[in-house]
Amino acid sequence: MKAWPLLLAAALAACGRPGPAPAPPPGRAPALKAYADLGRDPALCRAALERMGIRPTIVQGRAGPGGCGYGWAVSRQPAPPGNPRWLPDQPVTSCAVAAALTRWEQDVLQPAARRHLGEAVVAIRHFGGYGCRPISNRPGAQLSEHARANAVDIGGFRLASGRDITVLKHWNGNAAERAFLREIRNGACRHFGTTLSPDYDAPHADHLHVDQAARSQPFCR
Questions:
Q1: Which of 80, 124, 175, 190 counts the highest number of beta carbons within 10 A?
Q2: Domain, as residue range, for 96
Q3: What does the H/E/C string look like for the chain?
């Protein structure tokens, strides 16, 4: 157990490095497994998030109809210095999503914002974490990862100057806006099992969907 934090740190650090990704080994991608392992134990989750500079709150489980619900979840409160706050509130998510969001904010989002837009992101607007519903709200479809608190939909970003960048308005905006949004989408693919953007389908025209569905390799569109 003592060696586990070091293995996690190595896997998460590696998946956040820029440049071409190495060829994945057989079986589940190491970074995805490292995130998934955090869901084994709330104490393990808390310790890992605290090492990332996050003060997490463990949220009691809830049950919903038709298989919705979760055993326990995490709310990252409050946002530490250098990390953006979330609007309208901090989403309640699985520990795997919370940890991936933290690494994505630190290693992908903020560097991309400074590189392409010249300033930091101070807030992220989301459209929801947990929600008892099928995929894309299609009647009869299988349950979404949102129904297990294992996903977040990200709609936009507020910059330090007060300027807002949204997926809907700026996905096909000017060159800097397009580069920023695509870089953070591509970077999310290194941290999440699923990353969906406007390039995937019409229902995702206004947001980035990220989740930690169990996959052997990330699905990224």
A1: 190
A2: 4-220
A3: CCCHHHHHHHHHHHHCCCCCCCCCCCCCCHHHHHHHHHHHCHHHHHHHHHHCCCCEEEEEEEECHHHCEEEEEEEECCCCCCCCEEECCCCCECHHHHHHHHHHHHHHHHHHHHHHHCCCEEEEEEEECCCCCEHHHCCCCCECHHHHCCEEEEEEEEECCCCEEEHHHHCCCCHHHHHHHHHHHHHHCCCCCEEECCCCCHHHCCCEEEECCCCCCCEEC
